[in-house]
Amino acid sequence: MPIAWATAWRTWQMTRRAYPWTYAVGTVLPAALTIALAYLGFHAIGGGAVGDDFAAGSGTTAYLAYIVVGTTAFHFAVRMILWSAKALITEQRQGTLGALLIAPAGRLPYLLGFTAFAVLSSVLEFLTLGLVVGVLGITVPVSSVPGALLGGLALIGAVFALSVGLGGLMIAAGEAHISQNTAFIVLGLVGGFTFPRDYLPEPARWFAELLPTTSAMDVLHGSFTGGQTLPELLPRLAVCAVLTCAYLLLGLAYLPRAEARAVERTY
Amino acid sequence: MNQLRHALRVFAAETLKQHRRLFGQPLVVFSMLVWPVLQLATTYYTLRPVATASRAAENWPLAADPERLLAFLATGTLAYAFFFSLVQSAWHLSFERTTGTLELLFLSPAGRLTLMIANGAGALLQNAWLLTCFTVAALTGFGTLSVSAWWMYGIVLLALLIPAVAWGAFLNSLLVFSRDSAFLYTILDEPLWFVSGVRLPHFALPAAVQVVGAVFPLTGSLLAVRGALLEHRTVTELAPTLLGLGALSVLLLVAAAVILRVGEARARQTGALSLA
Predict the structure, then answer these.
(1) Where are the alpha helices (DSSP H) in chain A?
(2) Of A66, A79, A73, whose CA–CA distance to A25 is shortest?
(3) Would you call B38 an interface residue with chain A, using a CB distance cutoff of 8 Å?
(4) What is the mean pLDDT of residues B215-224?
(5) What is the ipTM of this complex?
(6) B72: closest CA among B228, B218, B219, B230?
(7) Residue of A25, A42, A45, A61 to mutate, testing the B interface (most B Cβ within 10 Å of its Cβ)
(8) Which terminus of chain B has a smaller tally of CB atoms within 10 A, N or C?
């Protein structure tokens, strides 16, 4: 716990001093533009309505509310991956990875500290998205408050589990740009964030089932625009929990090997 | 004459350097081919609920035909990939700051503006084969291309290439003199697709956004590319757009030259590589 706290505090100080605005703008701007794009398309092209296939796939006609939930969740996940998965490669680039590896600190609390910082700072940043949503006059219905909270927690857990393995891959490959952007684009395409997964071809839908974020998104969409109650959401929550545990275990098992490889290559 | 020959040699050398550094790396394949295709699919699916709405066809006849909608979005993705590669090359140039090679470039007798233009043009070969791939895919896959003459493909290439290189030279000059280049990168990357109508037709954008978009050369390039490839426009019909693009490109190059001069003069005085 002290390790997690120290890591989060250090990151907070560093970000506040060196890059106070870079991350906030980088987080909120893409999400705001995606929501604005959907808003303009909805009114100028759809004339304030959506096609029947959307209602069939998503269980709602509230296209804009669906987009707001999905886009916010997607960019939240992206921001968390950018902090948590890139924590180790940032240390590698700055030359402090070796020091981190010989320090008597566990890797899990270190990564949890980063995630805690990522979650708190991103939540603060995403509150400004509320302004955009308010200005555009979009209302987001909530059918189950506990479902939404659990869905949010499930998403955080799922992204953390993904980040552990991804962070290992990054230091082993000594590369972050390609792996991170590919992960984001694949997540955005198959993860069921901004459109129902029914649109996708069959193999892509099966692939999406293997990602822990997909079930978390089902819970989030279900508890906002989906009109589902908590008992109806529980099966998907359980799927998400199982997948999250599996990814976390795999990631933690792989991480020492990735670290060994990263160090062997450097020295 | 001698000066021109010198500039051309600097241009060739810097272009070759940039090409060697980027081409053959997985980065090129991903950022020019894999990411745009996946991004195109995401955009298409995200807009599909709107395009299949019952009144969509009256507002935008294109929307009724999924293949034409996809071709519309694909031209947007293609043009965006062109410009994005230039944004990326400008971002890469700022790495020369951190690695200390920028000083070497500035110490050499090479023309600064030539360097900036060449750095952007390093992506030329990648872009050319990308356009070929796109055209072949569009001809075989969508069957929706409508081109008035075969040499219009040449016009399309020029309408993408010249403004993109000018944009790249401008960005390069700007980013060389900035410390937090990642910030500028974000600012110049995301709004670019929004204001330029990459993923939406221009009529859907509010007037204020259209005005802002007119400053970005991508907007004009997209009008030319879509006009020539999808709407069967002739050169005469596209002439105003093409002339506007030319003027904008010249303006960007002049701005780049001014930034370089001001920045370098300031660096001589203060020793800091920054504009302000």
Answers:
(1) 2-18, 22-44, 52-58, 63-84, 87-94, 97-102, 107-135, 145-173, 177-190, 202-209, 212-223, 230-266
(2) A79
(3) yes
(4) 90
(5) 0.88
(6) B230
(7) A45
(8) N
